[in-house]
Amino acid sequence: MFGLRKEKGKIYATQDGKCVSLDKVPDPVFADKLLGDGVAIIPNSDIVKSPVNGTVEQVFDTLHAYSVKSDDGLEILVHIGLNTVELKGEGFNAQVKKGDKVKVGDTLCTADIDLIKSRGYELFTPIVITNMDEIKNCDCIQGKTVSGETVVFEYSK
Question: What is the pTM assigned to this prediction?
Fold first, then answer.
């Protein structure tokens, strides 16, 4: 039908900072897109917000990573910092639990980026779509970000 173009899906910034492509992340699991495609935020704020409307599927025990299933079925991993699992939860404060409904801009957690950096960990926050088979086309949007407001990834299903 004419005029029934489907609107693109959008993923929003999780933090204030700068959005870069995954290939800029100094970790081959993310840079080589072994978990899926997406972007990464280099944050300058401690508050980590939901990139989509959806349901929290998992809060990792170490509070450094969150999985959110978007209302349109995408599985999105938000991983705060690189190798931060080694902090065993120190510096992270979860604001959600499994099963919680979230909207774009709702706080998932706070992450003490000064502590993370002082311990020698990279601050990249990858936002990865782990079920890429659901997507036909995608575009990463790089540059300055405002959490919950800046679109960092657009996709078609």
Answer: 0.94
